[in-house]
Structure formats: C-alpha cells, structure tokens
## 1
Amino acid sequence: MSEYVNITIDDRQIKVRAGEKLLWAALDNDIYIPHLCAIREKERPNAGCRLCFVEIEGDTRPATSCTRTVEDGMVVRTRTPRVDRLVKTAFELILSDHNLKCRECPANRNCALQTIAKKRGIKLRQGRFKTIVREFELDESPDDFAFDRSRCVLCGQCVWADREVAKTGAIGFANRGLNRVVTTFRDRPLAESNCAKCTFYADVCPVGAFYYKKAAE
Amino acid sequence: MSSNNPLDLYRKMHDEAQARIKSKEDKPQVLIGTATCGVAAGALQVRDDFVREIEEKGLDAEVVEVGCIGHCYAEPLAIIAKPGFPPVCYGYLDEGLVHRLVEDFLGGDDPSYEYALAALERNDVFPTFEDFPRGIYEEKLILENCGFIDARDIDSYISREGYSALATALTQEPQAVLEEVKAANLRGRGGAGFPAGLKWEAAIKSGGNEKYVICNADEGDPGAFMDRSILESDPHLVIEGMILCAYAIGSQMGYLYIRAEYPRAVRHVQDAIDQARERGLLGSSILGTEFDFDLEIFQGSGAFVCGEATALISSMEGRMGMPQSRPPRLASRGFRGMPTVLNNVKTFAYVPLIIHHGAEWFKSIGTEESPGTAVFSLVGKVANTGLVEVPMGTSLRQLIYDVGGGLPGNRDFKAVQIGGPSGGCLPESALDVPIDFDSLHQAGAIMGSGGLVVMDQDDCMVAVSRYFLEFTQHESCGKCTFCRIGTKHMLDTLVDITQGKGDTETLGLLEELAEDVRDGSLCNLGRTAPNPILTTLRYFKDEYKAHIEEGRCPALVCRDLILYYIEPPKCSKLCNVCVGSCPTEAIFTREDGLKEIDQEKCVKCDNCRKACPTEYNAVVKLSPPVLPPQKEKAVK
C-alpha cells in the first residue's frame, strides 16, 4: 500500500496520508466539517456528537467522517441536503440542552458552537425543540477555574486531557442517557478530587463549561 | 476400533444415557413445566402437590421438572406419561386437579381426558397437538426438546441424539462445519439476519490463535422470552452449537452473556456447562480429540443497550456498557481485541441441527432467502399466548389466528407489534405479509429477536408509541446526541399528543425528528428507536390526528382525553356497587336515586366501570371529555 492516497472532497482533489480518518484529512486541507468530540490521537473515535456527517459516493447514507478511513479514489461531499439536514438536527438537539446565555459565558466569541452556527448558517436560537430545563450546581472549588455543567456538551475533550495528557484520572463520564455527566469520583467538588489542579480542562473545553475564573470576571 | 475416535466415545455415552433414561420410562412420569413462565403461574406448588399426593398414595411415579412446554396460556402445565397410555398434557393445574389426576390416572386407569389439553402421541382416543390448527402450522426445530427433557440432566439431552453433531463434526475438518453452516444460509436470529456463516468466516480470516465465541442472551425486549425459555429448557442445544462454532473458527474460550434477571437460565446453563465438562464435552481434549474449548457465563446487569454487540463487549471488558463506532467489526477486533463471533441464543441452537441433518434439510424449511423457522413469544390480546415456532414464510395472519387462536372474545384486531421497542406496529392490511427478514423490513417492522404483541381496539397507538419511547429513552446510554436528546424530544412530543396538545405542525416535526434519529444515531438502539413512531404514523395517522385536532382518543385510553360518565337510562336505583368501588368518593346518589360522578374528584381509575354489573353496563368512557348536554341540566 502506498503511503498516500488521493481523495476528492467537494470537487477538490487532495493527497492525504493513507490510514487517516476523513475528518482530519479534510481539516488539514482547510475543508471545514463541524465536530465537537473528535480527538485525533484517540484510536477509536468517540463518534458521539454526530456533527461531522459527510456523504461518500457509493454509500447509501451519510457517514460520520471521524470514523471513516480515507480510501484511494474516495469522492466526498461535505454539503448535501441530507448531510445538512442531519447536521442541523444534531446541532439543534445539542443546543436544546445547552445554556444559551452567551453573553454571560466566558467562551463567548471563542466557542465551538458559535463557530458551527456561523459556518453552517444555523441559528443558535433554534425554534424546533423545547429547551430542556435542568438545574446544575456550579463547581467553583478549584482556585483557577470552574465547571458549569449547564454548558457542557459531553464532547469528552476534558476527560481525554485528564487521562491521556495530564495522566490524572480525576474526571470521567457517569450515569446514563440524559443524565450522563462529566464528573469526579462520587460526584465530589473538583478541589476535593485527585484533580492535579492543572488547567488542562479549561484549555480544551470548546464551549466554556470549564473556564478560567479570570476570564469570567 | 480406536477408543480415541470421538464417534465411538459418543456412542458409548449415548447408549448409557439412553439406557438410563429408558429405564425411568418404565414407570409413570409426571413432567412439570417449570420454566420461569410456569413458575410464575405456580408450577412449583403444583410440583409439590404432585410429590405429596404420590407419596400419600404410596405410588411409584417420578416427578420431573422440564422446561417451557410452549402453551403458556394454560400454565401451570404437566405431561403425564404412563406406560400403556399416550403421554397426555394437562393445563390450568391446581391442587384439586392434581389430587384427581394422581388418584384417577396414576392410581387408577382413567386419564381424565376432560381436563387434558392434548395427547403427545397419535392414538385412537384423544387428539394430539398436531390435530389443532396450531399444530398444523407449527414446526418445532429448536424447541423440539423444550418441555420434554429434564434441562438439568445431560443424559436427557444425549439420549435424544444430543452432542452427536459434535461427535460427527470432530471426525471432520473444522472447515466442513463452516461450509455446512454457510450452505444452510443460517441467518442470525438476533434481529438483523446477517448470515452466521459469513460472520464465522470473517473471524477465521482475521487469523491469530486467540478467538472468542460469545452467545448473546441479553434478551431485553418487553414481552420477549424466547431466549430465556430455550436456555432454561434445553441449554445443551445452545452449548453444543457454541462448541461447533468454536471448532469451526478455532476458538478455545467462549462466554454466554446472560442477563442477571434470568437467574433460572443462569442456573440451568451453569449446571449444563458443569455436566458437559464432566463428560469431556467441554474443557481440554473434547471427546478424546486435540480440540480444547471451555465456556463461562457472564452475567449482564440488565442494560438494554448491552444487547448491542460493541456495548456487550465493552461491558464484558469491565467498561461502561456503551456502543462504540464500527469498524472494526467484532470478527476482526472483538473481545479483548481478538476476533470474536457473537451470535444470538437461537442462532447457536440451530447449528447442531444443521450439522446433524445437513444444510439441504435446513433449506427445505422456510423460504429461500430466510431458511428455517422463526421463534416467537406470542403475547398480548391473543387467545393462546406462548412460545411458538413456525417456518419462515408463514403469514402473520396464520400466526395470530391459527397458531394463536385469534383474539379472545371476538375483539377486533387492530395492530401487531413485532420486534419490541426496535420494531414496528403493523395494521390489519399487513397481516398477509410473510414472516421473514426481508418482508418484515419492507413493511416497516423488523424481525427483531421475536417478540410479538397483538393489540385490539382498546389499544391506543399513540399510547403504545409513547410506551416504547419511554422504554428506549430510559435505556439510552447517552453517548450520542441523537439518541440522548432526540428520544427525549420525541417522547415529550408523544406525551403532549396523548394530552391533546399540539398543532398541525407537530406531526410533521415528530416525523422529521424520528427520521433523523433513525439515520443519525451511533448504534442500532438509537437507529431503531423511532420505528414505533414511524410505523404508527405510517399506518395509524388518523389516530394521531384525532388526538391533536379533536382532543379525542379513539381507543379511549389516554386519560387526559376521556371522562367517565354514568348513563342515567342504564343506571339502576337498586344498585350501589359503583359507589363503594370508587377510591376517591367521586360517585354520589342523585335525588332521583341514580348515581353520578363528580368529575372534579374522579381520578379515572376505571374501578366503577369494572364494578358496574353487566346487566347495566351504565358506566361509559367518553372522548373528547365533554359531558352530554342533558347531564349538565341534571346537575343544576
């Protein structure tokens, strides 16, 4: 097998490393595909956010680009009616469960959700789904940063950073279904966990759920 | 003759087993169906009654516990086999009937046919099950032993040629087993119908020395009990199938993933594994050959999603039971990262039969694309509920009306729900659809693992959808957006509709979201969760519209859209029954002596309607919840 393969994305021919996942191949070549949960180093993709849909010629239905390995001669479209429809619905579903008070959010203007909305022309104030109202306690226990679960989109970037970069293992996913949360062991405040007090979480969080206290002031 | 020949070893084992079993048959035997279905109906009490009565009368008869006999509507069930008589099956047993059967049949010579359901062998006196419509359509392959053998006695299975397929296979190359299964076109019975042979072949091609065989017994659909019954009634059949698969793909270790809520199945399978190991049918050097394979049970904790292949593997590896993206397929990277074959209980159960009788025999049953039989747990508004096995290609109509005996009390058929929460509801017009993987898929339902719920005019299709969505929403693992949040919004919309809320756009939005959840979810739980909505919208849209546009529930089920009303012309001054039945004291006696319901106090519990004597039938449900005009005058 040669080291590189040729693929076509939106009529653009590009040469990419064999074995690469389609999402990264596109992003490396400045072709935008929305994504939240994708982690390049992770061997088996999360495939949880369901935003990176593309249509691949020969496939019967849109596929998530984070799970597809590039193949020589692959012809890919990032914008088709079916892709746009799925991405819009997935995005609006996420928004229906997200605290949309952007002006109060430290990630305002630096938020992955705002980027997706802008790039794909989707309104942040979606009208299709009722907002899911839930109460969360704000965790301000660490010195430098805080965790506001009402903004969390469960992308798992912080859990990955905690385990694979900081090598701490202080946080993880807990519970099932709509109750799924990022939390510490036994749901303790971060300061009481074995959190190493590094600020990786705030660095990787794309939506301002983990944020620097300074930035919020 | 070499003593190392597996066939010789097997023959010896078989002859000993048969001699032992036959010697038991010289005296009367009482076989009691004590699978979970029987136990729930009181079979253990019936067993004790038989033992006590037989002891008291000093008779020489043996009481044996067998599995599910299949006629669950008539539980508790027993079969009495007395030399000189055909074996006879009795249903609806209680202490009095047991007393009579022991006295008259075991003690005397009167089989008390007036209490019998059917005989099990052709005779001149009493009809057999084959003489009923159910017997004509039913064809038992993997259920053949269920309810007739003692699941906890390996000899019972061996005496019926059990493990002979294994012995034969061990004299051939592993490739021969694979070829036979492939030639038989055995399709996976877990629901999707993927050919088992191709799955096995992919695992072989993945190479490596470490491979796993896993049996998926994480049956979780509401109303489905096929896998449980088979494991409880005939565990060795599944074990033999797994050993054959292991031999074909070159695996040394296998697991049965059984949910912990099936304690009886777990016990029976564990006993079966222990006994098979003792006989050299599991463990090292199986039947004197160089083939080693062992089995262990893994108990699942009951998450529905763990029936999904990747979630099942995650849960076995000690992680959260959540699905993962595929590829890689299990056949190349499954349990512990090794090639793994995961099949359903029923799929493995067919394997010994295919090896024993050959692929051609298997293909002669059922349809060309879906050979073999389909096993269903037939439940709901059907006269003869139970565990049934029919050839593929049988129509739903035959299954419900001939095998199931139709709807009780001449009620009108409305829909049949196939495939559990992932399946769909099909209407009367779809009753002639043949049961096979492809036809059902076309009609909008899926074969699923085999749950089949019959519904009549008293079932509201919106409420049914809501019920299934409650289930899937509750069972969603929460990993992916569509399933985690999408099922919540679909459920909320359905709850709104059952309360009469919604407008003209509601149904369009619901359908749109359902389609997107189907197309966008990560695993099959999410992808199939909208099926109940999509099929009911396709076949019963009028019912949805009645809820939204008229505030009316045609089946008179949705509580917010009905009220209870006592019709004055039917009510009697002489009767007070309803007043006493009401838990909230909402019913009072009017000046004219008739009864009336205070709508403010009424909680719509249905007690008064049930209590009202049939000669009056004065309590009715009205939908939309508006009182008739003359009623309002009476209040004033």
Note: Chain B has a mean pLDDT of 93.
## 2
Amino acid sequence: MNLSQSIPGQIPLLQLSAVTKSFGSVSALKGVSFDLQPGEIHALIGGNGAGKSTLIKIVAGAHSPDSGSIKIHGHRVTQLTPSAARNLGIACIYQQPSLFPDLTVAENIALRLEKIRLFARVHWTNRRLKAVQLLKLIGADISPDTEVRDLSMPQQQLVEIACALGSKARIILMDEPTASLTHKEQERLFALVRTLRNDGVGIIYISHRLEEIFAIADRVTVLRDGESTGTTPVTETNPSALIKRMVGREVSTLFPPAESQLGPMVLSLRGLGCTAGGVKNITLDLRAGEIVGLTGLVGAGRTELARVLFGITPADTGEISLNGQWVVITSPQDAIALGIAYLPEDRRRQGVILEMPLSHNITLASHQRLFPRNWLRHTTEQTLAEKFIEDLAVKTSGAVALGNSLSGGNQQKVSLARWLATKPKLLILDEPTQGIDIGAKNEIHKIIRRLAKEGLAVLMISSDLPEVLGMSDRIAVLRGGTLAAILPRQCTAHQVMSASLGLKEEGVGA
Amino acid sequence: MKPQQLTRIWPQHETVLLLFIIAEVTYFSLFGRRFCTVDNFTNIVRHSLEIGLLALVMTPIILTAGIDLSVGSTLGLCAVLFGKLWRDAGLDPWLAQICTIGIGGLCGACNALLIAQMKLPPLIVTLATFSLFRGLAEAITQGVDAFTDFPESFLFLGSGQLGQLPIQAWILSAAAIGVWLLVHRTTFGRCFRAIGFSPEGALYAGLPVRRQLALVYVLAGLVAGLASLTYTARFGTAKADAGTGYELFAITAVVLGGTRIFGGVGSVHGTLLGVATLAILNNGLSRLPNLMNIASELSGIVTGVLLLLALTASALPHWLKANQK
C-alpha cells in the first residue's frame, strides 16, 4: 500500500505520520498518515467531514496538529506556520481563489512572491515582467494590468497557479480546482498539472469528481471519519471500490426504528427553483409522519433549498403546495404562519441567541401565536419554556439560564424547542446533530422519530450518511442544485454516495 | 476575592447610578447656592425634557446595536419648519404642530429606509442625515431668520404648569412610561434585543428584522419632532441651531444608564437615571459659588470621567473572569 516502500531511496516531498487533530470534543483527524512523492499527482477524496480540509490546512500551516509528525523534504518540521509552509515550497490553490480583487494581476503576484522590505523601491517594470513571464509559462492569456475583480473564476485560478509556479513551489495543494471550470478549461488545467508533475512537483489533488481522479492522478488516498483507509495507485482500483471505502461498513442499528403511519400530503414541490440560491427544478412530495433525508455533497444546494422553503431567498420558479393549497412564501414570517419551521445549520449563530435566556429563545419564533396583541406574558412564556425543557430533557439550571451556558447538544434542543413552539406542520432540520456528542445525538434522533410519529412531516438535511440512512423513510439526493435521485429506505450507503457523486449505477434513479 | 463572588455581589448598574444621584443631590444641597429648592428642581426638569425625550427613543435604537446621530438635527429642522408653517404658511398652530411631528417622522423614515431597507450602517447614514438636516434648517432660515412671537396657547408647552408640576414633567413621564412598556413589556422590545444580540439569529428566528429596525428610527424621528415643539415653546424662538449637540447628550445618557453600545442589554429606567445624573450634575455645578464661572467646562470633564467609570465598572466583572482563566 505504501509507495514510499516501493520506491526505495527516494525521499518523499511530504510525509505525515499518525497526525491527529481535534476541535473541542470533535476529532477531525484520528492518526492519518500520508505521503507525497516528487513528480506525483496524489488524489485525496472522502465524504463531507471526512477530514480533507483539516488535512490540507495542516499541510498549509493554518492548523497545527495535536500529535504526529510532518516531514518535508525528509526533514521533520515542528512549527509549521503559513509563512513557514510557503518558504518550504508549499503552495495552496483553494476552491475560492484568495486574490485581492482591487489589485492588478501583477500586484497580486508580487504580493505573494516579493519579500517585504521597508522603504524599498517598488520595481514596477520588473514586477510586470515577472508576471508576464509566469502567465506565459502557464499559457494564460491574461494582461498583468487587469484588476483581479475583472477576471473570471478560471482566470483567477490560473493566476493562483502562476503564483504557485513563481514561488518555485515543490508541493502544490489543489482543492477542487475544477469546480468552476468548463470542460475546455479543465483540459488545459490538466495539461498544466501534468507539466508540473513532469518537472518533479508533487501535487495533492482534492476532488469530488471521481472521473477526474482516474484521468489525472497517480495514487489516491481515501479518508473516512478522520481516518485514512489507505493509499492505492489508481490503476489498481475503480470508482465503485473507492465509494465503498468512502462509505465504510454498513450502518449500525443505533437508530430508533421507523414506525410512522404516513398521513396526508403535507408538502409538494413542483419544479421549484431559485436563481439566487442556486436551486433548480426540484420536485418532491412529503407526507405527514414521514422523514425525508436530504443529502448531497457540500454545495449541492441542500441548505439553499431549505432557505427557499423558509422564505429567506424566495423561489422564483415552480410551485409549492402546503396541505393541498398552493402557497407563496416570500419571508420567514410567511413560512412560520404557514406552519413551516426551519432549524438552521449554524446553531451558535442562527439557531439560538446565546446571550438570551432559554425562555426568551424558546418563544422567539412564536410571538404571533403566544402574544397575539404584542404584550409579553411572563407566565405563559415561563410555563411553555419549562414544558419544553422537561419534554426534550434539556440539561440546564432553569429557563432563565442564558443560551451560552449550555452544551452544544442542549443548545440544539433549545433551538428545536423554539420551532416546536410554533406548532409546525413541516419541520426542516439542517444538520441537526452536527458537532454534537454521541449521547445527545441519540436523544435528538429519538425526538425526531417521535415527532414524525406524532404526524409531523420532517425534511432532514444531513451530511452524516449513517444518520441519513438510519433515520429517513426516503432519501432525496441533491447534486449541483437539482434533485439527482430519490431512494427508498432500504437503499445502501453505496447508492447514496454514487448518486451524490453523479455516478450512474444500477438501482439508482428517481 | 474570587471573580464569581465579585460578580454575585457586584451591584446592578441602575443601583449604582441611583446611589450616585443621591450622593450628587446631597453634595450640591450642602455646598450649592439655592440648589435644594422647589424652583430649582422645576428648573432641572424643564431643561432636561428634550434631552430626556431623545435619550428615551435612543434606547431602543442602541438596543438593536444601532445609533442615531441625526436626532438633534431633526429637532433643529423641525423647529424651523414649524416656524415656517405657522408664520409663513399661516397654518393654525395646532395643525402646524401635528405637521411638525409628521415631518420628524419623515426624517426618521429617511434614516429607516437607508438602514433597514438598504442595509447601510446606521453610524454613517445618521452622520450624513445629521449634516443634511442641520444644513437644510440653515438654508431655510439663511442662517439668520428666527421665528418669534408665538401665541400664548403654544408657549404653554414651554412654561406651563399642570397641577403642581411643570408641563415638562407630564410629557416626560408619559413618554417614559410609553417607551418603558414598549421596550420591557412587548414583543417589540424582545425583538430589538434579539436584533442587537444577533441580527442573523433574529432573521433565522423569523422575526421581521427590517420592520423592527424601521420602527425604532421612525419613532426617534417622531419624538424629535415633538421635542422641537417643546424646545421652541421653552425658548420662545425657533432657530436653525435648535438642539445642536443634543444627540451626543442623549447617547451619553443612554450609555451611562447601562445600555450596551453593542446592543441587546439595557433598560429604559437606566436611561432615565442617566438623564437625571447628567441634568443634576450640570445644574449643581453652576450653583457651586467658587466654581460657577467654569461650570460648563467642569461639567464636560466630569461627564467624560463618569462615562468612562461607568463603562469600566460594568466591564470589570467580565474582565476579571476572563483574566482568571
């Protein structure tokens, strides 16, 4: 498996051994080893939250690992900062180019390459010549005097590559470089990447597009839940085998059993789209008592769809029917009045107001229902808050405690209580258990199941495959802002992942 | 002492302020000339109405983490337009008064449109309208015109008495009760705080963020319009410089009263105590026999020190807690 053993005598450009990293109680990397040889394109793949971003941020010096060692050109490096990484010949090309939009191409390149010296004269001519030279090297037809804001996304990416070249980087990290490229631009990028490889540069290539990996990479490493499932030469594997490694073992049976009786139709979407939100042509039905899992890769449009339904970015095409009536939702107030609740993704910024007491947090979305004449009623509020605190078993000193005194799982319960207090018909959950410890996760799963049993229609957005498979009655898979597949309860993780990645396979289809 | 204990015994902001007011009154009664008289207290109330009104409506604005620098200028513009409406347009004084309050509302709506709808930063928007409204007032009067000789019925608003109390006491009490109920007892007040703590959190809770923001700025405009009437009636003249610098006095009173400039935390009674502290300080200093001549300079210094002390005191428990870790 390990190529460094198969090529004796060659020093790897980069070698990570047993690297671990955790954020709070969540461990993002659990002892990952990884190596990059000179003249190699090494693909790194994995599902959402598998640890890819953490790994590249460690290599780029943005995060320091909790344990494990990093060797660059055979030398052990302990204090890797972004500037140290750059001096060691590591360059990163992120999915979103990080250039300064108001500066010209030449200035941007100079910022990356020139050393800062106080009171030194700026050699505008040299600067410009250098930029021209680099751009010519990669065959980019870009004037060095253009302001970056006037460049297209792929052009900005080319400038990033020019910077990487100019800094004489020996290790280049590319995070989904083709995400915004057309086929032709992609071909050109590939040609460029191959040239770099032939010059002995090592490239770590991250992509969700499996076909690209087979087209360009030499070896591939699959991450899953912060662990490496090993490194393989691409010639010795196939897409199906990679997906198997990305999803891992079959789902455990930790989830509460489905026992809902499906009731009447609650939500029907017909060709729903929103240009601003990047969602198009969604057709989906949801019945009372049903849990539909909504999944897909990051950027597939899951949260965007929820925001359309909740009226934050209203739909501009298609139709929404709620309880058999066509409705128009243009604001969150509309959505709440129609019985739609949305538990947002970012608990700490959107889900609860951390500096407010729990009772205020819980009633915040139900002012209209609880206080119809706008006068606050303390006892009503207190009673309701206490009821929910007991119902959902929120661990707290009382309803007057502030939101920031609670743990993540309990904050999430408070956020959920806020939405249950609105007496919704449709509950949209966005990553309901992200970053929550396993005990609270289990409790929240039981609550969701109980709510469905009581007749609520639940649309559950989640990146957590076992959660999606274990909780959902049906699974809707989004890809590129549109519905890629609707899968039945009995489907496998393999099918969900294939649909997310856009791979055609037997048994997949709406 | 452990910080936890300190936090527990650390008194409420409002309590400290109340104690300070008692200390002020005691000191000035002992050393001031004719301070502790009914006449003087009536005087204090008469002089603090406009700043009091502006501070009251500034409170909900700062609770939403906003600011309104234009209230003083709105007052000036409204005063001048009131004079114009009454003297030059020949409007009935009562009708002119209603129109003036409406104009104040329009000024507030102008801020509201830019802040709530266009999502521009309140500090800059109201800095612009601060300049704009004052400029308009000066242009209308060409810097020299002043309106005088208002009818008795109108001047009652400035010098009248109802029962034993000056008219100002009644107006201020009514406004204080109104704003107190709005902030502390209605869902609106709850929304202001939610927006102040976290605008994104408020949006995702389905609160009508834009409407609520518009409300506080329009309210400020309407009340500034009202204040322009009492101001004009008190001085008997309407000039373009009416209420100059009042926005800063109002903000000082609100922050001194314990409202957090970043929004979310604060109370209307705190604001009232802040207004009282400053009004008594200004009046008392001018009655100290040997300091009378430099009273206004001294009052500036004391106000500044007081504000810094108040801010430090309220931040101290958090600071200690943070440094303990």
Note: The CA atoms of residues 88 and 241 of chain B lie 19 Å apart.
